[in-house]
Design brief:
This protein is α/β, with parallel strands linked by helices. Helices cover about 35% and strands about 25% of the residues. The strands form two sheets. Strands 6-5-4-7 form a four-stranded parallel β-sheet, with helices on both faces. It has a three-stranded antiparallel β-sheet with strand order 1-2-3.
Length: about 160
Amino acid sequence: MHFHSSILTPNLQKREPVIQILDAALDAVDPYRAVLNALHVHNGVMHVGEGQYVLDEYKRIFVLGAGKAGAPMTQAIETLLGERITDGLVVTKTDHGGPTRFVQLVEASHPVPDEAGVEAGRKILKLAQNAGERDLVITLISGGGSALLVAPAVGLTLDDLQV
C-alpha cells in the first residue's frame, strides 16, 4: 500500500492524515507537555524518573534555568508546584517569554550573548549559592541555554564571548 498524501493536496480527505501526523509530532516535542510528562506530583511527593522527592521535607524550592523553551517549561513547573515555589529565575530568548506567577522569567539575546544574559547569570548564581541542604533546586535547561545564561570567568568580558 502506498501513501501519497501531502499537506499541499487540495483533497481534504488525503490531507487530514498528514495534518494529524504533524499535530502528533508537535505535541510530542511541546516543552510544556514534556515537563508534565517527566514530573508528577502525587500526595506531596514529586516523582522524576526513578527519583522521589517528598516536598514537605524541603524548606524552600527554587526553580532555575535557561533555554529557548524556558517559558513553557517554567509554566509547567508552576502548574505542578504552584505556591510551593519559593523563588526562581529562568532566562529565555528575547520575545519567547510568557506569563509566570512564581518564577521570574528574563529575556536575553540568542545566539549572541548580551548583558541581559550576563545579569541573569549573576542572579541565578546568587540564588543557587543561597540554597541550602534543606532546599530543593529544580533546574530547567533547553536548547540555547549556553548563549542565554552567561557568566564570564574572571578576566573575560562579554565582548570576548561574542566572537
